[in-house]
Amino acid sequence: MAVSKLLLGFLVVTLSGFSVTSVSSEFSIREATVRDIRIAFEQNKLTSRKLVEFYLNEIRRLNPVLRSVIEVNPDALYLADKADRERKAKAPVSKSWLHGIPILLKDNIATKDKLNTTAGSYALLGSVVPRDAGVAAKLRKAGAIILGKASLSEWANFRSSNPSNGWCARGGQTVCPYVKSADPCGSSTGSAISVAANMAAVSLGTETDGSIICPSSFNSVVGFKPTVGLTSRGGVVPISPRQDTVGPICRTVSDAVYVLDAIVGYDRYDAVATRKASSYIPHGGYVQFLKADGLKGKRLGITKDPYFGFPNKSEISQLFEQSFHKLRQGGAILVDRLEIPNLEAVIPILEGDQQIALLAEFKLALNAYLKDLVTSPVRSLADVIAFNKKFSDLEKLHKYDQDTFLQAEKTNGIGQLEKKALRNLTRASKLGFENLMRKNKLDAWVTPLTSGAPVLAVGGYPAINVPAGYDDSGVPYGISFGGLRGSEPKLIEIAYSFEQATKFRKPPSFKP
């Protein structure tokens, strides 16, 4: 839904003189980190009820314009009161970092409660999931309060070859809180916008190819895409079990790490992937890698390719000069002007073979997800396509068609074409990215904005985006650090050290 100029003007005027309500004269919730909130809990300066009330009020105030929250949990205040009682009784769960902390989940992550799980589509409205998604169950076990569902690019941006980033039928068009006209980027737009605008403490997004890293970069927040399988995809509306991953989107690296620690690990509903990736989880978790001197001695690779790096003497390179300086100042060794091995062979694989594989994987995975629902208006991709055609006005097909769905429906499992594509993707990852990392003994690959996302996506590699500045128009941009599977500890050290040295992030400006 378009935002009227009058309404936007009112928002800007209101915010320009807005003084955020404090819980007490000593503590303000706005921009508060998980650590800040936990200390306020312990010092009796804050309760979970007051925290939830603050975020609910911010959602009521800002969501009519930003449209980043699809639904609010009607039980949020009840859950907040429960957390306050547990804290008062010193229950064991109250020691968890996320206990009593409100979190928004992207609307493709299932919750077995009063919230819908629809991937932004009316086709799934009213469907009943059999259980919490694996990550949702772990969040509840950690005592987190599920505040609601964040908007997204419908069906995680896999419905159309020409999507509108941040748009879905149920939520409308999400808006970047820094500059209204800026691209919010897809598909975890609601998760990124909501935490950027202080409508939630922390959030979860999902990524198949850039959908955590991209909206985080364009909305000035931290996005952490874990190694595929490190977090469960059980109960998540799928695209590709080979590439899908669930990760935190937060305002700080430390908050993202607290969330990551809570959601990693084995889940029997995603048994093969989570069992394999569990071997990467370090003893003692990930919080131990939040080191201010984490850049010291790290070898960071910078490629000069115009598609996947920093072209020499380009505008992009100049934009990140301050970031490079801070990385060197922190003790990192920048291995510059690298070339991705076998790039001429890698690019067509990323563009062609990835899509061939994704189309077939999507149909198989989505059909399995839909069949597992307790009740649902649709039971297959074919049903979803038919629903969209029948209710084209409701789903606004004139703006957002479904050609990708139609292509996926034509596939017939993993045949010879798909097997060849999958072999090509594996080979491209080994000869390209893994060769680059090992040959140059790199701890991480540094890329601007989201340029490295496709390379990292096809191999299931992890990445973290950190705010790196704002352009002349006030539009945010981030810097990403990617690594080999299981390299989350190194990426956390690098990202946290960079964040602490730069402090680039600032609250939204709400520019028209």
Automatic annotation (TrEMBL):
Source species, domain of life: Eukaryota
Entry protein name: Uncharacterized protein
